[in-house]
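During the reporting period, we have paired protein sequences with backbone structure tokens. One record among many follows, to show the layout:
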Amino acid sequence: MSYVLGIDGGGSKTVCILMNDFCQVLGRGEAGPSNYQSIGIEVTLQSIQSAIHNAIEAAIITNTVNIDAICLGLAGIGRAADIEVVKGLVKELQNNKSLPITWALQPANIVICNDALIALVGGIGQSVGIVVAAGTGSIIFGRNHQGNTKRVGGWGYILGDEGSAYKIAIAGMNAALKSYDGREMSTSLLEDFKQHLDLESIEDLIEVVYRREWGVKQIAALAPIVDFAAASGDIVANIIIDDAVKELVKATSTVIDAIFSADSALEVVTTGSVWRGRCNIHERFAASLVKKFPKVKVIFPRYEPAYGAGLLALQTTQI
């Protein structure tokens, strides 16, 4: 029996799945974060080792597991220098005697890629299509039948992330403050932010955002306030959501134009917290995109990204 490991490493957690050559998941393990850009290579290595150990332990396999291939889909991996760093990490894994693994890896059986690719493969179940990730940040990534890829976005909260929870939350707070100033139309967002953050006045947003030194994740967590207001019929909140949809449709259209034909029958998988809102943002996005590209089908993920990593690893054993 051949076994492969699929690893999804992000800024908050690491997921590892142990898969056999029938695409069956035998074990799944989780551990801490593994974005080495932010936490360092040593902590990343520890998280990946723990996730692998937990996956094998969950599989309840009595014999030593023989690993023929591995795929690591990690956040922050994009440059050639990043690939070399992770190759060194894989060597460290193979030298770790505490893992109940016999490694049978060849260079061709080691796949190192960014987390967008494994989200695409896991979400659709194959490596052709487009993933539109809209969570704290946003990125759109596509791959065609020829293996050509195209990425749009992923530039971070200062330079990009249009359509993300962060940008929706920022737009919502801007609208509330402009309403308070009298510069823009009135909106329920003013009272919504006050109630949610327990503020005496909307002016206290200054203290919350600046003096508490809130980061991207804390601000992005306020996006559901805008979503709820939009679902309740607030005009301003709906304009914000519509603007987010327009940006995500534009980015997705750019990927389609770059590596697919306009009449291609392809699937677009949506991942991330933004799509789980109450204001039908998923339906708005799908309707707008399908209007431009009638043969496109917009779906929610079929499998998790770690499963996509497992499929990519398995493909290397079948070449």
